[in-house]
Specification:
Elements lengths: L5 E6 L4 E6 L7 H9 L7 E5 L5 H9 L4 E6 L2 H13 L6 E5 L14 E6 L4 E2 L9 H7 E2 L5 H11 E12 L3 H8 L3 E10 L8 E8 L6 E2 L3 E2 L9 H9 L6
Helix pairs in contact: 1-2, 5-6
Amino acid sequence: MLDTDHTRDALLGGLIHLEQPRRGQRASADAVMLAAAVPARAGQQVLELGCGSGVGMLCLAARVPKARIDGIELQSDLVALCARNIAANDMEDRLRVAAGDIRKRVSGITPNSYDHVFANPPYFDSLRHRASPHAGRATARSEADEADLGHWIAAMLRHAKPGGGLTLIHKTDRLADLLAALDPKAGAIRVIPLWSKAGQPAKRVIVRAIKGSRAPLTLDPGVLLHQPDGSYFPEVDAVLRAGAAFPA
């Protein structure tokens, strides 16, 4: 039975059903777009770091039905919630969540073994931004002193197999830090700006990279999200409401 602290919602036009906190960290367009940008194929092994209630894992699983996806989550209440969401969507045969700290070895999660690793790291440096008064949301959105962006990138690199893919979404103003953390252990980096509206600076970027590659960085033209009337462009709407792959 659903308690008053949680809501039950539908994602991807009803392809996914999700129980999530009424307050705190909830499903976002960023998490859905990130999952759509992971270039996973059927039969591959994928890992999400900081999977929360399971939004990214579930959305990716809906798009790539035969991928096997693991998740690591620090907050014990979200681990339990993610497990319930996996069961509610009948995906227990290929999705699983493990409780753990991304900086440490997590039981059942093998380093150097995943075809793809993806993450939506906390966006805000706690020294420069006021943390949310909600503890769970603060943990999800703000870097802790002991787990900064460098730790997230290091964990992605540690778990990807040689030649494995890395995909993440972050704020544009953290791009320099992100690229510095990837160098020199990953290459073939693609930076995909997300333009909210034409003529405005990109506030988000999706970054893809290949562990161990020496190929040069590519700056993509990016994706324009909103039309002048504020609605999503059709190809972006297809990502958010129908589970399509990201158009870049």
